[in-house]
Amino acid sequence: MNTFSIVFIAFLGTTLAAQLWLARRQIRHVLAHRNTVPGSFAGKISQSAHEKAADYTVSRNRLTMVDEVYGAILLLIWTLGGGLQLLDSSWTAANLGPIWHGTAVLMSLFLIGGLLELPFSIYSTFVVEERFGFNKTDARTFATDLIKNTGLMLLIGGPLLFAVLWIMNQMGGLWWLYVWLLISGFNMLAIWAYPTWIAPLFNKFKPLEEGSVRDRVQSLLERTGFRSKGIYVMDGSKRSAHGNAYFTGFGRNKRIVFFDTLLDSLDDSEVEAVLAHELGHFKLKHITKRIVVMFALSLAGLALLGWLATQAWFYQGLGIANAPSHINHLGLALFLLAMPVFTFFLSPLMSWSSRKHEFEADAFASQQANASDLISALVKMYEENAKTLTPDPLHSIFYDSHPPAPVRIAHLQEHQV
User: Fold this and answer.
1) pLDDT tens digit string along 109-119?
2) Angle at 148 (CA atoms; ends 143, 153), nearest 5 degrees
3) Fewest Cβ atoms nearer than 10 Å: which of 94, 243, 340, 391?
4) Are 91 and 111 in contact (CB under 8 A)?
5) pLDDT in tens, 9-62
6) Is residue 335 part of a domain?
């Protein structure tokens, strides 16, 4: 154990303590306000729905607390406990070349990690979501999704990892820049291909049927000058009672997708208002800005890894007794495992940026549709998704990508005609 080991343990302990403290604050705050619907929602959200949202939030946060402790223990086992080194050694007998060996180690790490997290996914789906009436997934669908996700990881992730490790071994000191170019290009390709090639593996998509909703949507698209590949309805009810809407793809491959559960619960004017909000993200270039930030952060991260991967103390401090003489897969694995520990306290900055974009998209929607319709749509979505109306402010600062419900509604009311 060296100095970096102590620094790592200190950051891990601080991060875990902060996560548990924030979760506990959220639970206490939500329970303290469980018996009273906020004044701005009086007459709009029933007392029983408010209590359900509180209980759902508490249940999910309690599960999160257990998962965070479990994750911290697993991280210590993988690093200081020698788990990664043991995994690496176990592949040595296969006598693979360095790049194939590294690919096998990393893919094994991801597969084992997913398997170890599987009990939490099962409990979340079949206990928590089931208890509150949201789960529509049966065991067969859950298993099929798991097999499909694993297959995609092997078929797409395997070759990508191989290419990354080849670049790391062949491109000299600036390998991290070439890896960044590869990953950036891959991400753009994935965003483009997702709606056509990947999403249909998991859900069925059908064009939005002709009628008043489609007429409103088409009119809105014409007013805002938005062109898409189509407007689709997804069978979200196949897995969950939660409702949503989103854009996917880019360029000429953009699609607008509504969950069938959302269309079943909202009026035509409310659907239009929700879509106007989503269009706001596109027209205000929020998606482009997020991609640019993602690429910038990945470049900075890879540049940091380019330096760390040459430092013996980095490997030794995270459980690799004999630092490799050249940059290899172990540096990448340790970086992926340890980096979240050191970046947790940047979460408020990312959440603030996201909430700012939500306010801007709401303002755009108020110009293109009726703010009152967006308010009524959000109220229905809060109730049907059991979204708490009374989150702890500090917890919200760290975790919430959307403004707290009362704040968001108040902001929209300023735009009401």
Assistant:
1) 999 999 999 99
2) 125
3) 94
4) no
5) 999 999 999 999 999 999 999 999 999 999 889 889 999 999 999 999 999 999
6) yes
- Helix 83-90 and helix 98-123: axis angle, to 10°? 130
Q: What is the extent of the structural domain holding 113? A: 3-186+289-346
Taking only the tens place, the pLDDT of each residue in 359-371 is: 999 999 999 989 9
Instruction: Give domain status of residue 10, yes or no.
Output: yes
Task: List the one residue out of 277, 312, 356, 376 whose CA is nearest residue 43.
Answer: 376
Per DSSP, the residues of 175-216 read HHHHHHHHHHHHHHHHHHHIIIIIGGGTS-EEEPPSSHHHHH
Question: What is the tally of structural domains in the chain?
Answer: 1
Res. 210: pLDDT tops 90: no
31 domain residue, yes or no? yes
Four-point Cα dihedral 374, 377, 379, 384, nearest 10: -160
Token pair for residue 339? 């980096």
* Backbone angles phi and psi of 247, in degrees to 5: -100, 150
Number of residues that make up the chain? 417
Determine if the pTM surpasses 0.85: yes
For residue 261 the two structure tokens come to 């559960």
- Return the amino acid letter for 162: F
Q: Classify residue 228 by its DSSP letter.
A: -
What is the maximal distance between C-alpha atoms in the chain?
A: 72
| CA of residue 30 relative to chain centroid, distance | 23
CA atoms 214, 383, 351, 295: torsion sign: negative
Residue 192 tokens read as 């483009």
In a domain, 118, yes or no: yes
